[in-house]
Amino acid sequence: MEKIDTTKPVLVTGATGYVAGWVVKRLLDEGLTVHAAVRDPDNQEKLKYLNALVDTAPGKIKYFKADLLDEGSFAQAMQGCQVVFHTASPFTSKIKD
Question: How many domains would you assign to the chain?
Answer without folding.
Answer: 1
